[in-house]
């Protein structure tokens, strides 16, 4: 099959490209940046450009839509542009898939949507949400994108699947994410800044495990479904900071700072549906994955005095 990946030059997208190629699919990367490898087709396109995206997706059998503004700080600084990219870009991608008669459409969503959870207990794919819950604008953009996917599925018959990512980490991470930030500061001997008391948790998911789920989700039974793809264990931000200090051999202090408004504090999220229906579960434990990631970040860190 010929599979398109919007955002295929990004952190997660590049690993999805690797996983698809590994099992024999052909891949077309749809991005503004060049892909990380040369054995793929490439269309330089902005997902907000409806006509350009329509042309760039012609001939695809499957479209994975990952392109989005994922940096929550960037979303906070410019919510209008983020909504145009995350919601407007999604409807452009859906329209391209519909008009080009693409056989499958996948949306990259996030477990951040569970910050809107109504009620207590482990979050699963059918958990109800509260419209008035306090949440980040990024979360709202992803909920809106999910709803658009289901609208296109119900109204136009487009075969859609939603993948709710846990908090991914691994090689090629964006420098602004928490693990690269901790590693960079640890190597420079600067304090590791932990928001709040550090007890907020994330179920970090190694990016190779996340990418593998995309291959498994090509199964027909995933049509019309939503899947949580979360890590196996909760990890507090304080534990993460301590682990980074240990792996880098740093003596940096851990400094507690005020929490960000609307930050995701983490919910217990069930990935049983993905395990049951797709045969997916994480294979790389957190300590192993973090060691791989820190080693990669050290090897790819910029020279002293140069910003990443």
Walk me through this protein's architecture.
The chain is an alpha/beta fold. The chain has a single domain (2-169, 204-233, 262-283), classed as Rossmann fold (3-Layer(aba) Sandwich). 39% of the residues lie in helices and 18% in strands. It is built from ten helices and 13 strands. A seven-stranded parallel beta sheet has the order 3-2-1-4-5-6-11, with helices on both faces. The protein has a two-stranded parallel sheet with strand order 7-10. Helix 1 (11-22) crosses helix 7. The protein starts with a strand and ends in a 9-residue tail after the last helix.
Q: Any key phrases for this structure?
A:
about 300 residues; alpha/beta; Rossmann fold; seven-stranded parallel beta sheet; two-stranded parallel ribbon
In short:
The protein is an alpha/beta fold and 308 residues long. It is 39% helix and 18% strand.
Q: SSE layout and pairings?
A:
Layout: E1 2-6, H1 11-22, E2 26-31, E3 41-44, H2 50-56, E4 62-65, H3 72-77, H4 79-99, E5 104-110, H5 137-156, E6 160-165, E7 167-169, H6 178-187, E8 192-195, E9 201-202, E10 204-206, H7 207-216, E11 226-229, E12 235-236, H8 237-248, E13 254-257, H9 272-278, H10 286-299
Parallel strand pairs: 1-2, 1-4, 2-3, 4-5, 5-6, 6-11, 7-10, 8-13
Antiparallel strand pairs: 9-12
- Give the helices and strands as they follow along the chain: EHEEHEHHEHEEHEEEHEEHEHH
Report strand %: 15-25%
Q: Quote the distance from N terminus to C terminus.
A: 37 Å
Number of helices: 10
Strand order of the largest sheet: 3-2-1-4-5-6-11
Helix-residue proportion:
25-40%
How would you characterize the largest beta sheet? 7 strands, parallel
In the CATH hierarchy, what is the superfamily?
A: NAD(P)-binding Rossmann-like Domain
Radius of gyration: 19 Å
Structural domains: how many? 1
């Amino acid at each position: 099959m010929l599979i398109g990946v919007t955002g295929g030059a990004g952190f997660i997208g590049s690993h999805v490209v690797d996983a698809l190629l590994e099992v024999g699919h052909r891949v077309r990367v749809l991005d503004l940046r060049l892909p990380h490898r040369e054995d793929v087709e490439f269309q330089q396109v902005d997902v907000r450009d409806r006509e350009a995206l329509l042309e760039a997706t012609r001939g695809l059998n499957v479209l994975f839509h990952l392109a989005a503004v994922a940096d929550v700080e960037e979303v906070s600084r410019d919510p209008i542009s983020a909504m145009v990219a995350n919601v407007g870009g999604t409807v452009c991608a859906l329209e391209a898939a519909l008009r080009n008669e693409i056989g499958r459409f996948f949306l990259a969503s996030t477990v951040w949507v569970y910050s809107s959870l109504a009620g207590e207990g482990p979050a699963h794919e059918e958990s109800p949400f509260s419209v008035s819950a306090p949440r980040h604008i990024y979360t709202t953009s992803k909920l809106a994108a999910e709803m658009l996917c289901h609208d296109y599925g119900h109204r136009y018959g487009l075969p859609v699947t939603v993948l709710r990512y846990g908090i991914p980490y691994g090689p090629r991470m964006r420098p602004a994410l928490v693990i690269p930030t901790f590693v960079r500061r640890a190597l420079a001997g600067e304090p590791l800044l932990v928001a709040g008391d550090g007890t907020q948790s994330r179920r970090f998911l190694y990016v190779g495990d996340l990418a593998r789920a995309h291959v498994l989700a090509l199964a027909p039974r995933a049509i019309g479904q939503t899947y949580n793809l979360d890590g196996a264990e909760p990890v507090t931000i304080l534990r993460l900071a301590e682990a980074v200090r240990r792996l880098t051999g740093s003596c940096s202090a851990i400094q507690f700072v005020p929490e960000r408004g609307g930050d995701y504090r983490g919910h217990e999220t069930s990935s049983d549906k993905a395990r049951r229906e797709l045969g997916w579960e994480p294979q790389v434990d957190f300590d192993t994955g973090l060691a791989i990631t820190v080693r990669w970040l050290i090897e790819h860190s910029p020279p002293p005095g140069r910003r990443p």
